[in-house]
Amino acid sequence: MRVLSIDPAIRNTGYAILDGDPRKPTVLTYDVIAIPKAIPQSAALSAIHRHLVHVIQKFQPDEVAVEGIIYVQSHKTAITMGAARAAALIAAAEHGLKVYEYSPKKVKMAVVGKGTADKAQVAFMVRALLSLAETPPADAADALAIGMAHLQASDPIRAKLLERRLV
Length: 167
Fold this sequence. Notes:
The model has no long low-confidence stretch (mean pLDDT 90). The chain has 167 residues and is of the alpha/beta class. Helix 4 packs across helix 5. The radius of gyration is 15 Å and the shape is globular. Helices cover 51% and strands 20% of the residues.
């Protein structure tokens, strides 16, 4: 199975393409779609959408995994994050891809074994588990972690173990 995983944000959307076995996936690519603050929100959303469409066309993923909606204290932040998420979901929908959502806690539990892990811990474990030569940028590391959580969730045995840890 090939999965496109996305950590959506208006200025720094992380994405990754993982392929294969949930126990030892192959990383095909990862990056951050960095949008300068000078770019208006509407243009940023268009850029996120276009970039993800290009990634989908190039790598032909089977499924998409995205970080679920998180609680934020600012309404403005929530709306902006929702808009970035929508740009990503529309790109997936246009290509008929099924989308799966994972809460940050579930992603951290799958990768670090602790649902309250910080970004540095997630990035460290992603690098170690995927045997990467360098630590990815935080948003790309989050996208890789989302992809790993999805692959684990698609493996019935690992999914049951993860569910037990979350209870």
